[in-house]
Amino acid sequence: MTRKGQTTRLVHADRFINQPNSGAVHSPTSNSVLFEFTDVQDLVDVFQGKQMGHVYSRSSSPSTAALQNMVCDLEGGVGAVTFSTGMAAISALFLSLVRQGDHLIVSRYLFGNTRSFFENLSNFGVEISWVDVTDVRSVEQAVRQDTRAVFAETIANPVTQVADLSAIGRLCASKKLLFIIDTTMTPGVLFDAQKVNASLTVASLTKYYAGHGNVLGGVIVDTGCYDWTHFPHIAEMYKGADEKQWGLTQIRKKGLRDLGGTLSPHAAHQIAVGMETMSIRLQRSCDNALRLATYLHGHPNVKQVFYPGLADHPQHFLARETFGGMYGGIFSIDLDENVDCFAFLNALKLVINATHLGDTRTLALPVAHTIYFENGPEERAAMGISDNLIRFSVGIEDIDDIVADFEQAFHIIGA
Ligand SMILES: *Cc1c(COP(=O)(O)O)cnc(C)c1O
């Protein structure tokens, strides 16, 4: 049988993959923290990794396992581990794999909280080189003997730089480096992480996966592309027969079990339901974003639009190649200096002033005053973030209504 289309597979994922009993189309939400074993030898075998099973729900449960199976199928990997938030996944990933004295190459264009996490990690003796991931040469120049990993996002926000993932992937393969990509902006529906030789992907499930602004979650997927025998920090006890599982085993133990950022069973169910419609939501958000960005591009009150879907974006062709002809649902605009940014935002009625992205609703955020407030004016200037920069996460509303909202807002402020 030919492999079914992406939307079909997502809608039926729980049935096809997890096959819940009694004709249920959803995996049951299992609330038990503990799991009984009638033969204690089985309990011991699960503890010792000789047998699959659940012993305590901080480490795993039937509910998180069901979601992990679905994410893994979509992303096409050898395994997935879920977490309570995207940040829990990112922090657990690095805290379980790197050590004092290691060197990491990290994108200069990063989600603010991730950047803050890496800054803190450097206080623990991990050295970070911040590089321009749109240019593989800057990554190459940063590689050292003690480099353990390269980390980048697919499309960065707010200014939408697109990393040259294929070239970085080739570089990492030749140097046997772990290549970790945050795919939050471009889930598996848009982006094939194996094609660019990613080793691990990490994503916030809060965003496009869940999609409705009502639940938090995160995930790490192992693509199967990396040979873990080259990684020096896998503990002997986690080196099982299947080398492909070494990395995730250590992440499950040192990252999830010991740090405790576990996804709750109810949240896992909500994310699984959201995921069923992800491909059509994402397609619609991308279409709407392109339409809205095109409308704003050249608008007299807009100085610049940052969207990879526009032909004047520096990585337009790279984005088209990498994300199957789609360009994501996020873009930013720089309003003219003589336009009052806050007055404009307050005049929007349909569009919601809120931080968050990947939602069904269109959201707007003044970047400098909020998510980049902690960076201070000098760093913001260096990052190209002006006081009039607004980030939009475009939802799935009817595009004419979104554009009409912008038109009336420009009208109200007399622009
Ligand atoms: C939101 C986000 C995160 C963090 O996810 P949470 O679920 O909010 O913890 C990480 N990376 C990117 C790119 C994000 O947009």
From TrEMBL:
Entry similarity comment: Belongs to the trans-sulfuration enzymes family.
Keyword check for Manganese: no
UniProt keyword terms in alphabetical order: Pyridoxal phosphate, Transferase
InterPro entries, per database record: Cys/Met-Metab_PyrdxlP-dep_enz, OAc-hSer/O-AcSer_sulfhydrylase, PyrdxlP-dep_Trfase, PyrdxlP-dep_Trfase_major, PyrdxlP-dep_Trfase_small
Entries under PANTHER family matching the protein: HOMOCYSTEINE/CYSTEINE SYNTHASE, HOMOCYSTEINE_CYSTEINE SYNTHASE
Cited Gene3D superfamilies: Aspartate Aminotransferase, domain 1, Type I PLP-dependent aspartate aminotransferase-like (Major domain)
Protein name as it appears in the record: Cystathionine gamma-synthase family protein
Cofactor: pyridoxal 5'-phosphate
Organism of provenance: Fluctibacter halophilus
